[in-house]
């Protein structure tokens, strides 16, 4: 058994005891109230989910297992000479709550290498799809097609005890996570680089192997590690996390669950916003004959977007009320590695121009940039100009968080999700209208 799985096996009984105590002794304690606006307003703010893997404070942003992004980047072990930590170490942290040491890291890296091989039928299936299919459709379809590899399904069918569910869900999740960089890079090289996939390098870690298979040189492996870590988790109420959790609650295995979550990530209000940001910026550059706009030109473009009834992509958030620290982490990387990039300069100008306009516009509760406002510019700088691919990379990262959550869901015996609906007439009666 790997050190990571061993650690999980040690931690699960203590968590189960805490959950059992809460459920048995405090099950009727009131946590929140439901308001009519939340029935139609996407249940915004309703406290009815639980996760110990990350917590999103509206003012401070995300903490992974209690650690801020700068703390994670500083404390997690790094490959020799690298600027960014091992993605494998972040997986260890999300799953166990502990910062791994050198021997734990080596163990996870080696375990992932053993799980990497992608069955050939996945490539056959991807190749059979029309090449202009959106890469998120390809990515999600590949995850779904891998479902025949599930270890959860045969073990469940053989009569698995509920206490053991987490074990095959762990195996499926690790097998799946280890394969995602190769599937993503394969889609990229097949679709955009003249069908020239690059075989993985068995000696490289998760982030470096992805950069290698993308065919992009140093420091792209650093941005890959940063990108996957930053996008991994954002509490459990966002669409990709909640969908994965919901589908998994029916005991659909991790392949079904993650594929569903990725389909939610593919929406323009969620993960697809990173592609929308670059498309929007390109429209602007095109309009101005590829020169940097003046502040006035930029302000006009932002107002034109708003006045035509569209949202400003990369700005606003359902929970956050400050600049997203995932934006800031990417901005710091850009300031160090690509300070003179013209699109970075434009993204920086937008950071000055958009918030006051959104405040004046008066609708968005959060006028500040989110993660998606910055992810595209760095990718563009290193040659990944095919912006419809950006959400796939978000998906590789997001899989880390949602699958970690799924393992813990099964470990603590989370029930099938089934909230209750009311009719509009019932709500009118409750409101005293009828
Ligand atoms: N531009 C223009 N209007 C905006 C806006 C923006 N960036 N953000 C919010 N608003 C508008 C909303 O459309 C809404 O208008 P209506 O009342 O007419 O419906 C109003 O302001 C109130 O919305 P809100 O309460 O501030 O925001 P929500 O919680 O409803 O939605 C969103 C949060 C992220 C979906 C929203 O801010 C948005 O559409 N942003 C642009 C798209 C985007 O960047 N999405 C990525 C978010 C991060 C993420 O999940 N990444 O994966």
UniProtKB/TrEMBL annotation:
GO molecular function: citrate synthase activity
Annotated family: Belongs to the citrate synthase family.
Signal peptide (from-to): none
Keywords: Acyltransferase, Transferase
Pfam families: Citrate_synt
Enzyme class of the recorded protein, top EC level: transferase
Record NCBIfam families: cit_synth_euk, PRK09569.1
UniProt-listed GO biological process terms: carbohydrate metabolic process; citrate metabolic process; tricarboxylic acid cycle
Name the record gives this protein: citrate synthase (unknown stereospecificity)
This enzyme's EC code(s): 2.3.3.16
InterPro entries named among the record's database cross-references: Citrate_synth-like_lrg_a-sub (IPR016142), Citrate_synth-like_sm_a-sub (IPR016143), Citrate_synthase (IPR002020), Citrate_synthase_AS (IPR019810), Citrate_synthase_euk (IPR010109), Citrate_synthase_sf (IPR036969)
Pathway as given in its UniProt record: Carbohydrate metabolism; tricarboxylic acid cycle; isocitrate from oxaloacetate: step 1/2
Organism: Caldithrix abyssi
